Amino acid sequence: MLPELALGKARPSRLRDALPEAWRAPLARLAASWIALIVLCADDWRDMADQWWNSSTFNHILLVPFIIGWLVTIRRHEVARLPVSAWWPGLVLVGGAAFVWVLGSFAGLSVLRQLGAVVMLQGAVAAILGPRVAAGLAFPLAYMLFLVPLGEEIVPQLQLVTARLAVTLLDLTNIPAVLQGVFITTPAGYFEVAEACSGAKFLVAMIALGALVANVCFVSPLRRCLFMATCIVVPIVANGIRAWGTIGIAEWRGIEFASGFDHVLYGWFFFAFVIALVMGLAWRYFDRAPTGHTIDAERIMSSRPLSRLAEATIGAGAAIGLIMLIATAAFGWSTAAGRLAAKLPAQVDLPQVSGWHRVTYSPAYPWEPLHGGADHRLLGSYADTEGRRVEVSYALYASQGEGREAGGFGQGAMPPDSGWAWRSPGPAIAGSIVQRLSAPGPVEREAATFYRSGSVLTGSNIRLKLANIADRLFLRAHPTAVLIVSAEEREGAPADEAIRRFLRAGGPTGPWMDRIGGTR
């Protein structure tokens, strides 16, 4: 036999021999269960991978699987000393994760589905390898949560914080500035703290880095907490400084120069400097010895609570079978609920409203809300005898799901890349969420959004999701409707007043929406 072939044939044997005998079968069972769970949730893993690769906010997650592998590797010798046994309470974690996945499917919330898909893998580790091994691998397992692309949900709040920090610093440096939501006006021009400037990318990555460093380099819980707080506060403050610096440079050299400076210098060097600064300040306080163990197998073995928990054993074959049963039942439940669809009329139209008449749709700046996947979409303009105008957008969905989410990201009054930007919350209108928007010109607009599902009328996306979840849990088919009443700010005709007058003329909003959709 050729030496190369002999060497190639020997490798699997050496790899197998490197594993303790007691670990070989459990690891094979764990691998099989992970493969099955990933296959069942393939759409979610594919969506996550797409975000890791194509969204700059989540590019850092591409490193997370390798970090998890490294964290397991540095614990391998201590973990190998722990006894392995299938553990039935781990199935409760699998079941809870499967239920979260189902809820995410019902609500059309991909982040819940993705969270459930990841936690099912964590639960499988506890169920197949037991509580002591799960305790030994607690941090690598917890770090798996960073596989879920989270962070875009806080972008609007970060935009506001960044804008306020920038204006505060501008005031301190004697640069006149007026803040209107996320827009800043200075003598140099009109600036927007856009979504890309919110600092979410850096904050999300910094939190992931901070969690890793806190575990690997610190022992003291207090020092870990202080370091994590630093990793949250410093990026937010640094982004405010970045915005202030960009505007300050615009005052000095002009907007075009400042824009290029921001992307070239800050994009490549500023946040790298911030990371180096945080790590440099924390370095002297690292209290874990470089050669120290990351876990203590003896302490885990002598733990009375873990010893009591470890008594709840189950057969290895039964554990795998129940994991598959739970996952398959969740998938089947989701599939059955996903086929629910309410009966809708073949055609819908905007109704007549007392004191108002339909007019040609001609906004000062193009405005067309996004209602992806809606079965019916309407958009029109009304005017009253005093010259007030409103735009009305209505969408009707037979069901909610992936690609047809009434309150999904980017849906509604402010579609991405439309030229419209969120400025601030608007005056409260019962049953709705009110937003002030701005577009080049500048053109300002106020939009009141109502969601309707069954008897629920709300402006809260969360409450809408809960109503959709309840319908699917009990396999009820209710349509979902979205109404957006909007008006541009006009001299002598405030947008808020126009919207309120129109809503009063239309009568109770919920029944009005039902009549348009023919659902009541």
Automatic annotation (TrEMBL):
Q: What is its EC number?
A: 3.4.22.-
Subcellular localization, as worded in the UniProt entry: Cell membrane
Looking at the UniProt entry, the stretches that span the membrane are 57-74, 86-112, 124-146, 200-218, 225-245, 265-286, 309-333
InterPro entries, per the entry:
EpsH-like, Exo/Archaeosortase_dom, Exosortase, Exosortase-1, Methanolan_biosynth_EpsI
The Swiss-Prot or TrEMBL record annotates one GO molecular function as:
hydrolase activity
Q: Which UniProt keywords apply?
A: Cell membrane, Hydrolase, Membrane, Protease, Transmembrane, Transmembrane helix
Source domain of life is Bacteria
Specify the protein's topology with respect to the membrane.
Answer: Multi-pass membrane protein
Q: Where is the Methanolan biosynthesis EpsI domain?
A: 319-508
Protein name per its UniProtKB record? Exosortase A
Q: Which species does the entry assign this protein to?
A: Novosphingobium tardum
Task: Output the lineage of the source organism.
Answer: Bacteria, Pseudomonadati, Pseudomonadota, Alphaproteobacteria, Sphingomonadales
